[in-house]
Design brief:
The chain is built from 3 helices and 20 strands. With 441 residues, the chain is mostly beta strands. The protein has a single domain, classed as Porin. It has an 18-stranded antiparallel β-barrel.
Length: 441
């Protein structure tokens, strides 16, 4: 089996996409730009315990068009297609310990499903930029790592920069489309808690399709609310210092406040730089409190040092309050998050994380990370209400090869122990090895 999967991994790494980047220009007239790419991901192996995904192969193809600017106005389209790669995944495995990496797909049977995830009108002029329509949204509570298809949002977002040192982001988000990894965020990373980037089990309302913010956060049968209001400010007027403050108001659900500060100290002797960072996240219920009781705070500190060849960091998060954090809109700002763990958003957690990276040659980067989260007071696995029984921890090793700006090859191994490992007599550990190849044009 391992030999067969290794051969398939090699096949993925040689998969190519034959379209080249193209600026649409004819007779000196600019008609816009066409871009896109292809991603392939394959699970080489995993612990066969019915918890750790031990098989699955998927692809994502993208094609995007962005028009030229007319008096500052332009528009864009982006189509995303995700499905099973070459029919390699087993969706009805005979072995009950065999578990599909469902977080690579947006359908239960691996059938290809497309989404016009980006349809927007954009305006840019001097210090103002506005983007309205379906899009990806870059804020601390709407941005996180993804596997194949990402999350998309129906939103109107504005970037305003009145001075060189001060910038604002304002917006209203009314819709959300769950990407592929949200299934992993619910069932594996979040372990049935609404803490890992999604508030409900995604397939209960459907992935790669748009839902109101209230439905995305709470589930079916919820009346539409006024969505998610975003206000953010960043100030860089002090030398080597960046300060940012955000407020995310989810109508009738919760108010979320996020603060972050960075201090960078260049080191001529080491030809690198030190960076000290601090973060604070608070959530409280609002209005009709459709998600129930919410009372959560998290503090974080991170110290890092890096050069062109290597880097190292140490980070810590501490959470308190009477509940977990309802992390329903795809974000992940916590310093101690790792590939398969986001436990800092659970109730009463003391977490720390250590990591190093090294680049032995141009285009190659090797990384190793260790995180420990202790035990939380959050009950896992949805209606089963499983209590934590042991410390949660994760160790990851990652290798990335990027021969040029278009190609990227990545492999990682993650070894993880769930805080619910052994609860109810169920083993919940991971020894997961995956390979990914991407091409962009």
């Amino acid at each position: 089996m391992l030999l067969r999967q290794s051969v398939l991994a090699c096949l993925i790494c040689t998969t190519s996409f034959s379209v080249a980047a193209k600026d649409l220009v004819s007779d000196g007239v600019d008609y816009g730009k066409l871009s896109g790419g292809l991603m392939a991901a394959h699970v080489i192996t995993g612990d066969e315990n019915g918890f750790d995904p031990s098989q699955g192969s998927a692809y994502m193809a993208t094609l995007k068009y962005h028009s030229p600017s007319f008096s500052g106005f332009s528009f864009g389209l982006g189509e995303y297609l995700v499905g099973d790669l070459f029919g390699l995944s087993e969706f009805t495995p005979s072995d009950p310990t065999d578990k599909l990496a469902r977080g690579l797909f947006v359908t239960d049977d691996g059938s290809s499903k497309g989404l016009l995830g980006e349809v927007f009108l954009q305006y840019k002029n001097g210090m103002v930029g506005v983007k309205a329509g379906r899009q990806m949204v870059d804020t601390p509570l709407t941005k996180a790592s993804y596997s194949t298809m990402p999350n998309f949002y129906g939103a109107a977002m504005a970037d305003i920069k009145p001075t060189e040192d001060l910038s604002f982001k304002l917006g209203q988000i009314t819709e959300m489309s769950f990407g592929a990894r949200t299934m992993t965020e619910w069932g594996l990373i979040g372990e049935g808690t609404p803490t890992a980037g999604v508030g409900i089990k995604p397939d209960t309302i459907g992935q790669a399709e748009f839902h109101s913010i209230s439905t995305a956060a709470v589930g079916k049968g919820t009346e539409d609310t006024n969505g998610l209001t975003v206000i953010g400010a960043t100030y860089k007027g002090f030398k080597n210092v960046s300060l940012s403050a955000w407020d995310f108001y989810a109508d009738d659900i919760a108010n979320n406040v996020y603060l972050e500060g960075d201090l960078t100290i260049p080191s001529d002797a080491w030809k690198g730089k030190f960076k000290l960072s601090a973060q604070f996240l608070n959530q409280s219920e609002e209005g009709d409190a459709l998600a129930g009781d919410l009372d959560y705070s998290m503090f974080g500190l991170k110290a890092s040092f890096g050069t062109k060849k290597w880097s190292a960091y140490a980070a810590a998060n501490v959470s308190d309050g009477d509940t977990h954090f309802l992390n329903a809109f795809g974000g992940d700002p916590a310093y101690t998050s790792s590939i398969f763990s986001r436990n800092a958003y659970r109730e009463n957690v003391d977490a720390y994380k250590l990591g190093v990276s090294y680049s032995p040659m141009k285009g190659v980067k090797l990384m190793a990370n260790y995180a420990n989260y202790g035990q939380s007071d959050t009950l896992g696995f949805g209606s089963k209400k499983v209590a934590s029984v042991t410390d949660a921890e994760e160790f990851d090793v990652v290798a990335v090869y990027k021969p040029n700006k278009d190609w990227m090859f990545k492999t990682f191994y993650a070894n993880r122990t769930s805080e619910y490992d052994g609860a109810g007599g169920t083993e919940r550990t991971q020894g997961h090895w995956r390979v990914i190849a991407t091409y962009k044009f």
